[in-house]
Inverse folding.
């Protein structure tokens, strides 16, 4: 199989060597919730396929890290990658694929490191005035992954190559024949391990004799197929299928935090499979030149297994804390949207339904099922008050109802039902956009947004240390945003924003709620007790200078305060983040790009364990060697810094990649 993945790229490249070299990264407009320009920009909210390559970003979390307001983080004990948007995690900033929400039904998160960029045309992040059409739980914004759409009779793109500790290969072949189009792709990225920095000091759980991080292997395979039909200029329909298969290890904690239980009792975990299948239909029917109906239907299946071993040999599962945990989840739903233009007024009405089903068990135990149904209705209005002033308004109502929630008693083996519960909430927002000069836009918005408690929030026993709370209510935030963007001169683009969020009824874990006389330990419970605020600003600059030179930089400041308990610290987001890059390109023959990032310290625990500040520098160069072939090479962490996003979980040291890229 490995040889197949290494060789299929070369076969496709040879096949494409008779036609004209053209980029084939056109976004699927059906997948855009709010239609955006395909023009590359690192100043604002969109990063596209060309930039994935230029910045050597192969998964979506690292691709998003180049944008202001986005903070890359990790869930070290699970070897997961994630991002925060203006201080909000993925439970409050939903991740969507072509407008369809994707997350694990149990906890609302998803491992973003398992999603590669090979099949994407662009990623759009909504941060300020976020359309209610994205659906519920968009407190901090929304992230939409937009796939590709072929526009020519034959398109072939891909790359194959080596990276430190592994290899990558991807191939996409598409065709547009007028009313019909088809696109199919296959990819694999595999690593046996990643290298540690030479500055890393050996610990009991991580020796340095090999120079590589123990149990850091991963492999991600993906198959994607798209078939589309465009009967006329106003209508389009597409059927999509995506099959993902992943495996990964979890590097063992190697920190020094005396309050971290893993210092004395490390986890020895592996994921033998992390599989996801998606079937979805997208449709847009133009009724006339002023109105349309959009529909999305989807079925999403998610299966995985965690194996917890006795020790670092990863051979036996016999001790009380060892287990094999299996999830077998699925989601189905639909979205319908109607839009109508009435002079300067644009009205959109949206209705969504989604059912999440979570099924879990440890080997030797019965299967438990938990499921929720969520219904959302929204209306938005865009009104041009004058030629230069636009008013945006939106209102939505959502209901989340538990359908089934089974409770397992490990002592008796009995399965009973948790109490059923449901919550109804509402979101409201308004914004003004004022055109300043030829290219400037000044905006201000206010929004009240809510987030429902997840299945895990309500029913988890937290590995025996917690008490379920089925009656959790939604948390809500009032967000304010003041923004300005403009092309100051033909050589300088500026975008800036000031934002403030006040969060009430925050869903937080409360310690020492009840004493368990059997275990002689205090138990915690998730409750609606928190009040907090997020204060921050963003500044982005981009300068496309003459003679193929482009410079860019963005800075993000975020301060998060726990108003209910100031002694508790928010985790995973640095207060200061600076990203910058410099590019030089000579026609279509050659380009070189260098980028750097500085992150201030961040807390890994609420009691103050710290991941130290760090600076990183990376570089990529590409040379168009012949017709449809380009040779590119990259180096990440040039100065081999020893750094971490989570205390006790070091990130890769200096690492390299070399790829042969083909494009037809």
């Amino acid at each position: 199989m490995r040889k197949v993945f290494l060789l299929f790229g070369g076969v496709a490249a040879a096949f494409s060597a008779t036609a004209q070299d053209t980029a084939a990264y056109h976004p699927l407009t059906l997948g855009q919730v709010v239609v955006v320009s395909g023009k590359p920009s690192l100043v604002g909210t969109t990063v596209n396929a060309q930039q994935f390559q230029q910045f050597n970003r192969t998964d979506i979390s690292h691709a998003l890290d180049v944008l202001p307001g986005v903070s890359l983080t990790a869930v070290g004990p699970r070897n997961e990658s994630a991002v925060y948007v203006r201080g909000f995690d993925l439970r409050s900033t939903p991740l969507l694929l072509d407008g369809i929400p994707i997350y694990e039904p149990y906890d609302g998160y998803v491992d973003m490191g398992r999603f590669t960029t090979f099949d994407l045309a662009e990623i759009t992040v909504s941060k300020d005035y976020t359309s209610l059409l994205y659906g519920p739980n968009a407190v901090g914004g929304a992230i939409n992954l937009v796939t590709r759409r072929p526009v020519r009779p034959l398109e072939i793109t891909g790359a194959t190559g080596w990276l430190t500790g592994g290899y990558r290969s991807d191939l996409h072949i598409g065709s547009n024949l007028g009313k019909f189009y088809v696109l199919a792709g296959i990819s694999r990225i595999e690593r046996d391990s990643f290298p540690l920095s030479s500055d890393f000091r050996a610990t009991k759980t991580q020796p340095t004799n090999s120079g590589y991080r123990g149990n850091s292997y991963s492999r991600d395979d993906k198959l994607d197929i798209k078939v589309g039909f465009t009967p006329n200029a106003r209508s389009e329909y597409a059927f999509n299928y995506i099959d993902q298969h992943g495996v990964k290890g979890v590097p063992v904690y190697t920190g020094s935090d005396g309050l971290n239980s893993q210092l004395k009792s490390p986890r020895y975990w592996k994921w033998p499979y992390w599989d996801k299948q998606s079937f979805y239909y997208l449709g847009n029917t133009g009724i006339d030149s002023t109105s349309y109906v959009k529909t999305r239907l989807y079925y999403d299946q998610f299966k995985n297994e965690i194996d917890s071993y006795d020790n670092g040999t990863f051979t036996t599962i016999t001790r009380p804390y060892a287990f094999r945990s299996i999830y077998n989840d699925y989601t189905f739903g639909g979205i319908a949207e109607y839009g109508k233009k009435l002079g300067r007024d644009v009205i959109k009405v949206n209705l969504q339904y989604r059912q999440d089903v979570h099924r879990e068990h440890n080997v030797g135990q019965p299967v438990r099922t938990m499921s929720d149904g969520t219904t959302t209705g929204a209306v938005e209005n865009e009104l041009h008050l004058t030629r230069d002033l636009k008013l945006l308004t939106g209102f939505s109502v959502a209901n989340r109802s538990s359908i089934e929630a089974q409770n397992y008693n490990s002592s008796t083996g009995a399965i009973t039902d948790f109490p059923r519960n449901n919550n109804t909430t509402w979101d409201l927002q308004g914004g003004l956009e004022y055109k300043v000069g030829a290219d400037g836009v000044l905006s201000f918005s206010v929004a009240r947004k809510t987030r429902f408690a997840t299945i895990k929030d309500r029913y988890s026993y937290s590995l025996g240390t917690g008490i379920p709370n089925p009656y959790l209510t939604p948390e809500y935030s009032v967000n304010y945003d003041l923004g300005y963007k403009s092309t100051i001169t033909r050589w300088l683009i500026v975008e800036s924003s000031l934002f403030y969020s006040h969060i009430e009824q925050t869903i937080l874990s409360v310690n020492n709620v009840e004493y368990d006389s059997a275990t002689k330990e205090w138990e915690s419970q998730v409750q609606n007790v928190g009040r907090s605020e997020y204060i921050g600003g963003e500044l982005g600059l981009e300068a496309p200078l003459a003679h193929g030179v482009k410079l860019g930089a963005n800075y993000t400041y975020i301060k998060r305060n726990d108003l209910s308990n100031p002694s508790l610290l928010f985790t995973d987001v640095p207060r200061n983040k600076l990203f910058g890059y410099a590019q030089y390109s000579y026609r279509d023959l050659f380009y070189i790009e260098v980028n750097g990032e500085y992150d201030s310290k961040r807390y890994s625990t609420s009691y103050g364990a710290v991941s130290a500040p760090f600076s990183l520098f990376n570089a990529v160069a590409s040379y168009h060697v012949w017709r449809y072939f380009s040779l590119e090479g990259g180096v990440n962490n040039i100065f081999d810094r020893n750094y971490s996003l989570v205390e006790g979980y070091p990130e890769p040291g200096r690492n390299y990649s070399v790829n042969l890229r083909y494009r037809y």
About this structure: Residues 2-663 form a domain with the Maltoporin; Chain A fold (CATH 2.40.170.20). The chain is about 5% helix and 55% strand.
